[in-house]
Design goal:
Oligomer: single chain
Strand content: 5-15%
Number of strands: 6
Radius of gyration: 25 Å
Structural class: mainly alpha
Largest sheet: 4 strands, mixed
Order of helices and strands: EHHHHHHHHHHHHHHHEHHEHHHHEHEE
Shape: globular
């Protein structure tokens, strides 16, 4: 026997392994120390709602805006957070991020495969998605936008599943105020394909978003978000994106692939109903790039499909299996329990605060103080822009040491301050007779002399 008729050795292509590469990012990124101050007050909001047995409609956390109208737009996520913390502590949120991230990349892979039927295209889109989605893979409720948006795309693009759309839309509306992006996508697709008979589905889906715990209040949440946009400019993630930076370069690659697809005749005129609004969305803010990428994924996959299915001859199955095990298991060797990052939050300095005194501090400390119940009378400010929008400019002036600080301190009854060492307000307080009772490399605790 010369072996001429022997079956060829089965091999696994590099594209197959590329599909699981995001797992490395997910595992290592999910179990990092907590640095997100928004996440911390969301956990506290979940505890508060558990205790009350209802969603929050007024601020319970600050002395400056206490009892002012404020709705927990992410009420369902907040309840989930309170449960996770109770069952598994902060490390439980690492596992939560791992699951949410895995579902997101799996859904994006399915979208890419559905519209390209090409393994290389699917692998390329998966890898391009890694740096674009990484900044949004944080424990804040916005992270649920990623898999929910991908699910909405998958449901709408399969005619057999369209009547399931109200369910993910209701869930999305109960978790995050960005749910309207799903309705925009579906509406754009209806216009692109002129599927006028499909209108009842998005209408029912839109009605479902009004059936969450806040009812019609969900509309107010969206309106407040839109009207707060000028104030969001103070937050880096809401500033216009810099597409020439490494994390956003994959989006530029995607645009080039769209252009090539248009030249090759794979981009229809009707696709512009989706491409144009979501390109505008991506240009509006760094944080908007990830959801825009998900909306563009079907068009991008259809435009960027290659004729060939893989490069090279691949790897023998035993070798590929060893690499797969290293990818799936190896990252866990570098993970541990999740804790609040002491380099981000004033954990040491807070031990030197008198909790009964009204305290001036920044928005980062505010999130931590809410979570830790540090201050008895509540916080001065945190990053809930929709609540503090009328105070943000005032807060910035105080940190800069402008004259307004005396009037605000008098009005709000400020009796102590936690200030960063390099902030001008510290020097102005010293000049006004305030004494420093604690100081480290980052913060000072000050009270009137």
């Amino acid at each position: 026997m010369d072996g001429a008729g022997a079956a060829p050795t089965r091999r696994v292509s590099l594209a197959h392994l590329a599909l699981v590469a995001p797992w490395l990012l997910l595992v290592i990124g999910s179990f990092r120390p907590i640095r997100d101050n928004s996440f911390l007050w969301h956990v506290a909001a979940g505890r508060e709602q558990e205790a009350l047995g209802s969603v929050l409609t007024a601020d319970p956390f600050s002395f400056t805006m206490r009892a002012e109208p404020w709705r927990t737009q992410s009420w369902l996520a907040d309840l989930l957070y309170a449960w996770i913390e109770d069952v598994a502590g902060l490390t439980g949120f690492g596992w939560m991020l791992l699951v949410v991230g895995a579902l997101t990349f799996a859904a994006l892979g399915i979208i890419a495969w559905k519209f390209s039927r090409n393994l290389l295209t699917t692998a390329a889109m998966t890898l391009l998605s890694v740096p674009l989605l990484a900044p949004v893979l944080v424990p804040r409720p916005v992270v649920f936008t990623l898999p929910l948006f991908a699910l909405v795309v998958l449901v709408w693009e399969d005619h057999r599943l369209r009547w399931l759309l109200p369910f993910p839309m209701w869930l999305w509306a109960a978790i995050h105020g960005s749910f309207f992006l799903g309705l925009v996508y579906v509406g754009a697709r209806v216009l692109a394909r002129r599927e006028w008979r499909s209108w009842p589905v998005p209408v029912v889906a839109a009605a479902a978003t009004l059936a969450t715990a806040h009812g019609l209040g969900i509309v107010q949440i969206v309106v407040e978000f839109l009207t707060a946009r000028p104030h969001l400019a103070h937050i880096s993630e809401w500033r216009p994106p810099e597409f020439l930076t490494p994390p956003l370069l994959p989006f530029v690659v995607g645009l080039v692939l769209l252009l090539i697809g248009a030249i090759r005749g794979r981009l229809a005129m009707g696709d512009l109903w989706v491409v144009v609004p979501f390109l505008v969305l991506a240009l509006s803010a760094t944080r908007a790039v990830a959801p825009a990428w998900i909306a563009l994924a079907p068009v991008l996959a259809a435009s960027a499909s290659w004729n060939r299915d893989r490069f090279g001859h691949g790897f023998p199955i035993p070798v590929a299996a060893m690499v797969l095990v290293l990818i799936l298991v190896g990252p866990f060797l570098y993970t541990g329990s999740v804790q609040v990052d002491p380099d981000r939050f004033p954990i040491a300095a807070s031990a030197h605060l008198r909790p009964e005194l009204r305290t001036f501090h920044d928005d980062v400390a505010g999130g931590y103080f809410i979570y830790d119940s540090t201050l008895e009378d509540g916080v001065f400010i945190d990053d809930r822009v929709e609540l503090f929008m009328d105070r943000i400019d005032e807060f910035i002036d105080i940190r800069a040491g402008r004259d307004v600080w005396r009037d605000v301190f008098r009005r709000d009854g400020i009796e102590q301050a936690l200030v960063a060492i390099d902030e001008p307000i510290r020097l102005f307080l010293e000049a006004d007779g305030w004494r420093t009772y604690y100081r480290d490399s980052r913060y000072a605790v000050m009270r009137p002399g």
